[in-house]
Amino acid sequence: MDNRPENALLHPTFLSKLEQLQLISRRILKGSQAGERRSRARGQSVEFADFRNYAIGDDLRYLDWSLYARLERLFLKLYEEEQELRVTLFLDASESMNFGAPTKLQAGARLAAAMGYIALCNFDAVSCVAFNESPSTLRFIRNRKSASRLFEFLQSVTPSGQASLNEGLRRHAASVQRGGVTILISDLLEADGFEQGLTALQSRNTDVYVFHLLAAEERKPDFSGDYRLVDSETGSTVEVSFPKIRVEAYEKTVQAWCNHVRAVCRKRGVLYMPVTNTMDFEDVVLKSMRAAGAVK
Amino acid sequence: MSFLSPLMLLFGLTIPVVIILYLLKLRRHVKVVPSSLLWQKFLIDSRANAPFQKLRRNLLLFLQILILLLAVLALARPFFKSSAQPSRFRIVLLDASASMQSTDVLPNRFEAAKSEALDLVNNLRDQGQKENDLMMVILMANSPQVICPATSSKEQLRAAIRNAEPQDTTASFDDAWKLAVSLARNQPDSEAHLFSDGALAFSNDLPTHLPLHFHPIGSRCKNVGITSLEVRRISQSRGEIEIFLAVQNASETEMECDAELYLDDQVLAVRPLKLQPLEEQSLIVPFQNSTGGLIKVALKVQDDLAVDNHAVVVSQPVRKPKALLVSNGNSFLERAIATQRDVELTKISPSKFDPAASGYDIIILDEIHPATLPAGNLLMISSTCKDFIDAAGAEENPVINDMKLGHPLTRFINLDNVQISRTLKTKTPKWAIPIVESPSGPLIFAGQDGPQKVVWIGFSILDSNWPLRVSFPIFISNTLQWLDPASDQDRTLQIRTGEPARLPFLKYAKDYEVKTPDGKKLTLELPPKAHEAVVTQTDRVGTYEVKIGEQQIRFCANLLDSQETMNKPKETIVLGKYQTVEGKTLRTSNYEMWRWLALAAFGILLGEWWYFHRISA
Questions:
Q1: Nearest neighbour of B33 by CB, restricted to A104, A230, A246
Q2: pLDDT 10s digits, A14-71
Q3: A225 vs B contacts (CB less than 8 Å)
């Protein structure tokens, strides 16, 4: 049951539950700032990583004096550096997301808010891109106190126009410098698909989560008869004679398409989660996502 | 394939109109969806799964065009020409018997049979002048009548069938069938169609090589009818009469009715009857009447067949026959005749006998040999007449070795203890049958030569011990009754419908008039030298009035046939010894196709209606 305060994306009690969770990244990544994640970078921490020969200019504080006493050679002790995880929330804000009750965009914004809040609680850097014809971006924010900025940003997103997933993801990939996690929340209703964008993103050493968000009406239409269907984004029309007896065939088509998307994701090692706008949101985050390995 | 009405194909121009209307007609609801992507995928999947999906999209249009095409084709009346196939010969046997007047199918069975027969006519093939089907119609009444000879003219056949009327007679299937078989003998591919309720008699020696299609008519059996009516005169002198009546219930349920008896429209008796299923009850109603008249019987009952609910007989007024005994004195014979109170006897000696004398109904010649034969019915005892019965000597002690049982003369007679010492020898004439025979020839014979009935006894009764036997007075009584012209009249004045009425007349007239029960008047010509008038048009139940010169004769025709009364419709008939013909519905033709096309159009119309409602549900 939705018991959050008005205009609030997430209820405070739910937020406190989210604080217990942590985003799972299956890659050891490089962040720009110190954080709580293991990284390939060698730096200051308590975890010993390796030795290497001393070179002029190295910090003398990391010399292993015990080895120098035994071998009379200078070695430098290397430690693993714990760095932050850079999480990018990639929210589809095209016109097609403005359907359903609640709208897919509202459901997606809540999902993005939950994921962003989990990341912020774990000292990860979170940025958010609401992409449509004129994408808006929230630059990286850190720590829990900045969560309100994320929430405000998400609430301010309004659906409009078309969104080219491939284009949006490629552009984002170009801006990624140190990898991280990209969480894509979209209905994926793109004629060109999203595989190219995914490829571009993964080539930047980015871990990708795909939340495939569809409205319940899209899975099982609540109308029948002769219709001229108008695409909300492109304005193109399709004429269908859709008797009730063909609802099942339609459902099969949608399921086949979802299976195809799932297969594409699995092939690329992308975590795929189908979500419907009417699903119990807390269950999705606390149970389904945990079961799928997106959070722990 | 050709068309009987090719101009009707112009209606095909309406097909583009339907297409235009269809294009104008279809209004789709407009609905905004998040993306048309899924719907396009759905349509592609649907097409992939159904090869004719493109057609299905406009299935309604195609169905409507198809309906229109079929309707236009039906209007154009297409038919197939098959010149290789020989023409067919069909013989329609239309049962016109009384049972076909049953009203269990409305208006009656005969009309239903006519309707089915007309359907058969409609389905005859029209293939041009040479290859047409031929059909002929035989009306099965008391005797078969060819009401339409073999023709391919449907109009002629229809007119003949429409004008056919049922009759109050039995139907003779055997005669009709033999006629049909003989007519079909030289026709290839011939078949007979019997339209009947099956209430017919079938012999088991009928030829079976002509294919017979039986079209059963009728739905139920609810009928009570008179199957027998007879008037017996118990005593001429006292005017005692008995009416014998038999009533049959043909239904499979109990029926109640009143049997009303009238004498010249005066009620004689009313007898309520309760008849069990298939029961026949007999009634004997005695009454006294010496003046004669019309005795009518009417059954008051609600049933399907009315024609067997009434019957009528003529009762003759009491009249004692006049007998002339020409004898040299024969007390045994005189006593035997005297016991017959209903006979007015005159005795004369042979010397006073004038063969030209008239006014006698019966003349008894006892050992007399007149040169010419007297008029009237004759009992000749040891008598001969030149050129009529000649004796070829005599036989001593003849032995009786055979007696014609069942003849009215031998009723209650036993000749075992009769011995004869001498008899005349002669041969039985062609017009007579031997009643009592010895190994060498007849001892007694009887017969009718023209209007004259003759009983001939070859021996003098005084040359035998017969007068001492009980059988002698009985035989004389039987003989006088048989020779009484009134007994013949009773018989000739009551006939069954369809049988010819043979009416002896007193004076010859060139023409005679017949008034039938339904009021028709017929004038018929009497052949010269005829001794009786024959009325053959007796196919209606009721009283016929015949006027021959000044003489008025009434006779009655009745159905009185349990086979017609038992009018339960049959589903199968047995033809010949073994062949069973099952009833079947009428076969329709494959050649004129418009009915099939119209039926198909109607079926598709229903399908289109169903599909329309299914997709718009």
A1: A230
A2: 888 888 787 776 654 544 454 555 555 555 555 666 788 888 888 888 888 988 999 9
A3: 29, 615-616
Q: Flag whether the ipTM exceeds 0.90.
A: no
B55 at interface of A, judged by CB pairs closer than 8 A: no
Interface test with B, best of A240, A247, A257, A259 (most B CBs within 10 A): A240
The mean-pLDDT minimum among A170-184, B291-305, B539-553 falls in A170-184
Please classify residue A129 by burial: count the beta carbons closer than 10 Å to its beta carbon, then call 0-12 exposed, 13-18 middle and 19+ buried. Answer: buried
**CB neighbours of B318 closer than 8 A, spacing ≥ 6?**
B233, B236, B237, B239, B290, B291, B292
Rounded to a whole number of angstroms, the CA Rg of chain A reads 23
CB contact under 8 Å between B38 and A223, yes or no, is no
**Contact (CB<8Å) B34/A244:** no
Q: Find the mean pLDDT for residues B255-266.
A: 89
By Cβ distance, the residue of B31, B33, B57 closest to A241 is: B57
Interface contacts A/B by beta carbons within 8 Å: 94
Nearest CA in chain A to B613: A243
Whether B23 has its CB under 8 Å from any CB of chain A: the answer is: no
Burial class (CB in 10 A: 0-12, 13-18, 19+), B584: exposed
User: CA distances (Å), B371 to each of B331, B374, B377, in order?
Assistant: 25, 9, 17
CB contact under 8 A, A233 and B35: yes
Q: Please give the Cα distance from B33 to A217 (Å, whole number).
A: 10
Q: Are strands B542-548 and B551-558 parallel, antiparallel or unpaired?
A: antiparallel
pLDDT of B355: 80
Residues 6+ apart with CB under 8 A from B2: B78, B79, B81
Strand order in the sheet with B542-548: B494-496, B551-558, B542-548, B511-515, B521-525
End-to-end CA distance of chain B: 42
- The rounded percent of chain B whose pLDDT value lies above 70 is 90
A 10 A CB-CB count for A144 gives: 13
Task: Answer for the pair B548, B557: CB distance below 8 angstroms, yes or no.
Answer: no
Binning pLDDT at 50, 70 and 90, where does residue B455 land?
very high
**Per-residue pLDDT tens digits for B45-58:** 776 555 444 445 57
| Partner residue facing B41 (CB), from A104, A231, A253 | A253
Contact yes or no for B42 and A253 at CB 8 A: yes
Sign of the CA dihedral B391, B392, B393, B395? negative
- Could you tell me whether strands B322-326 and B310-315 are parallel, antiparallel, or unpaired per DSSP bridges? unpaired
- Do the chains contact at B42 and A225, CB–CB below 8 Å? no
Whole-number average pLDDT of chain B = 83
Measured in residues, chain A has a length of 296
Instruction: Give the tens place of pLDDT for each residue, B344-365.
Output: 888 998 888 888 877 888 999 9
Per-residue pLDDT tens digits for A230-285 = 988 888 888 887 777 788 889 999 999 999 999 999 998 888 999 998 888 888 88
CB atoms within 10 A of CB B569: 20
Spatial neighbors of A187 by CB under 8 A, at least 6 apart, are A92, A96, A97, A104, A212, A213, A214, A215, A218, B34, B35
Query: Chain A residues with CB inside 8 Å of B40's CB?
Result: 238
CB proximity B41 to A under 8 Å? yes
Q: Which residues of chain B are within 8 Å of residue A227 when distances are taken between CB atoms?
A: 28-31
3-state secondary structure of B498: coil
User: Which residues in chain B have Cβ-Cβ distances shorter than 8 Å to A164?
Assistant: none
Determine the pLDDT at residue A82. Answer: 58
Lowest mean pLDDT of B50-64, B212-226, B237-251, name the range.
B50-64
Element (H, E) at B289: none
Most A-contacting residue of B22, B29, B38, B60 (CB-CB within 10 A), to test interface: B38
**Can you tell me the distance from the alpha carbon of B173 to that of B500, in angstroms, rounded to the nearest whole number?**
19
